[in-house]
What does this fold into?
Amino acid sequence: MAKSAYSSGRIKKSRGLTIIELMVTVTVLAILLAIGLPEMRSFIVSNRLSSDVKGFVGLVNYARSEAITRNQSVVICPKSNSAITCQSSQFWGEYEIQAFVDVNGNGERNASDILLKTLPAVDPTSLERGFVRTATGKIIFRSVGLSTDTHSFDIWAKSSDAAYESKYGRRVCISRPGRVRVIAYNTTCTNF
It folds into this structure.
């Protein structure tokens, strides 16, 4: 007579999850996602803001340095979509930002000028992030590194909540001596 698996003292083990184990696993995963997703969104928004601000500040510092090194004026402006010329707009986030050596001194980029660097548009659709200058115009550094004017720019994550925009927003200030400072969103740039 043949012995069955149960009569010999061996029990076959199942190799899967029970419905209860599966439900507990799904519940724990749902709780972890509910806690982690809002923080992940904040991390991504903060990281994008930081990247936008650092990229722009880096471009400004580089342009000033090149003006001194080359002993020529350097201009930073939004690039027109259809040409190499500067776009006259307060909304810099929609355009590529270009820095160039103004060889002929006319303040506009043309074929004889030397392109130094171009930054991609912060948000070409202007739906998620804003990058606005308080007035239209360009940043011009003279050969000694002085800016022709003071400038302020707001870079922020767009939202219908003012507190959210304030939390995820910065103001970049450029003084006449060419120094750059990043301050809290919606505060006033002072002389420094």
Summary: The helical segments are 19-70, 162-167. The first strand starts at residue 74 and ends at 78.
